[in-house]
What we know:
The protein has 3 domains: 97 residues; 41 residues; 164 residues, Trna Endonuclease, Chain: A, domain 1. The longest helix is centred in the N-terminal third of the chain and has 46 residues. Strands 1, 2, 3, 4, 5, 6 and 7 form a 7-stranded mixed sheet that branches. The C terminus is likely disordered. By secondary structure, it is α/β, with parallel strands linked by helices. α2 crosses α4 and α6 runs parallel beside α8. α14 links the parallel β5 and β6. It is built from 17 helices and 7 strands.
Amino acid sequence: MDKELRTIPSYATVLEELKTKIRQAQHKAILSANKELILLYWDIGSTILKQQKSQRWGAKVIDRLSRDLTGSFPDMKGFSPRNLKYMRKFAGTYPDRSIVQQLVAQIPWGHNVRLLDYVKDYNERIWYITQVIKNSWSRNVLVHQIESGLYQRQKDTCKITNFKRTLPSPQSDLAQQTIKDPYIFDFLSISQSVRELELQKELVSHIAKFLLELGTGFAFAGSQYHIEISGKDFYIDLLFYHLKLRCYVVIELKTGDFKSEYAGQLNFYLSAVNSQVKSKDDKPSIGIILCKSKDKIIAEYALRNMAKPMGVSEYRLSRAIPARLQESLPSVEEIEKS
């Protein structure tokens, strides 16, 4: 009988719909439980702060509180002295409970702890929380993005594009948010003097990490993508499709300084993609020139009169060491003495 039911089209459809609803309910239940836990931690942290101010609670009281709470709620984890101190820091960092309830409580406690450890600026921390919610980042991905300086690289002040002039709103705003400067390719084991084709092959061979660095929404379409125009062959370095922008993205790699003629070449490729690859439902294709270095003024002049939407960004094969790690590294003198 079960086999007969499964072959009925309407039954199979209803079954899948019910499965989807159950999964959605499970997800909502997890989110709800997480939110209540985060709010509980805020309440505990806020209480500790108040008692420290009014009753001068010290470290010994927190140790005692840890033992008492753990003894009273043996099935609950999270009442270690270390975690209670994080709760105190959490409540001090977000004194407004409504902000916690509306935004901060939407991400797991482990993510919040990492943000407390790694990010000091309030606005930057809120930005990362928003990105975690939007992109469903794991804790490790969040740490990676923080250490790569994603917040700074996403700022409009760093970006050189002509999107606002060549794309309608809100497409121009979304495209502007999508681009970074610089891109960090620290997952590649190649020298600084790498050639363009070698860099391209290395990026493709590490496509998962490359896509993570590009950001949410990029789908790989091909490398050395062939286009024929008037009987002549042309090859695009890297071609992607962006699911949110609903358009193709052409990336040209340059292992030296940016040159103004690169913009003309990219403009040509974008015209070809719009003519031969883009469908009628796709938005206009955009281009990104990735170069080892650029002069900001030259790049701005080069894009000023280009008809197609494009941007210029630099890439790095290694990232700067975070300040918190720099302090723990030995000096040259210390290394020589050892």
